[in-house]
Amino acid sequence: MSTRESDQNGVAALMERILYEVKRVVVGQDHFLERVLVAVLAQGHLLVEGVPGLAKTLTVKTLAATMRGSFKRIQFTPDLVPADLVGTRIYNQKSGEFTTSLGPVFANLLLADEINRAPAKVQSALLEVMQERQVTIAGETHKVPNPFLVLATQNPVETEGTYPLPEAQVDRFMMKVLVGYPSEEEECAIVERVTGPAITIAAMASTEELAMLQRDCRGAYVDPSLVQYAVRLVAATRDPERYGIEDVAPYITWGASPRASIHLVEGARALAFLRGRSYVLPQDLSDLVPDVLRHRLVLSYEALADELTADELIERITARLPAPEKPLESHGRPGAR
Predict the structure, then answer these.
(1) Where would I find the Sigma-54 factor interaction domain in this sequence (predicted)?
(2) Which domains, ranges and CATH numbers included, belong to the chain?
(3) Cα-only R_g, the chain
(4) 158 band by pLDDT with thresholds 50, 70 and 90
């Protein structure tokens, strides 16, 4: 076994131990958990849509404990100001000097609860930190810890008192994950765990180890044909007629940006790592397409009138643009690079 294969097996085993430890507390939500780990490895951010009470906070808090990382939660409200997030300068009357008080964004895992309940100025402050991974307070630059993951939630039920996220800001999120209700069996297990003895979470990895895994993840092999496939999928949302999908064109006002192509490839690398491989397969890309694209499509009035969702349109596009067949034959042969 080569050194790289041995390292890759170690990465997969470590992520499996982290996942096992989280699932001792969190019941079900396998898709959500996998996407959170993908975002951690790919250094992206998640936008999560789901009703209250579906273990979104518990998942992120437990994950932070398994990684010896810090966890902060911000409840977004209409009266929030940017200083409540990033921090501010405080005047000390006794010493006559100003000191910097850093805000809750300085954490490894940050939960922005109901992000659409805060004004645009607060949303912009958070999204600037997500992009730059630093804040500037009174001319001083402060970097957020590494790794840094923002998980922002939206409630799809109650829309009173909310501020819709501008499309340019939503595009900063790597994926949008939809979290649904648990099954009856899963809900029974949830009640038993919550009402039973408290579960102690063991730390499986340090933040330094996680940063090393993130660097290794960027070295995963992506065949050029898969990169082209990701670009074609994203381009098809902008110009469906060019790819022979004329029936989709009336339903999409604006398609996904090139950032979607980047996030597709980066996410596929992370997903391949989680699955114990150092190279990306077409299935890795295909599995992530709905999560990466659904929040980036601006639907037309025709789509709303016909009650079509972004997921249904994405399904039509992927059905007409099949993934390349056997793109990794040379990479998979013994002795190949």
Answers:
(1) 8-155
(2) 3-212 (3.40.50.300), 220-324 (1.10.8.80)
(3) 21
(4) low
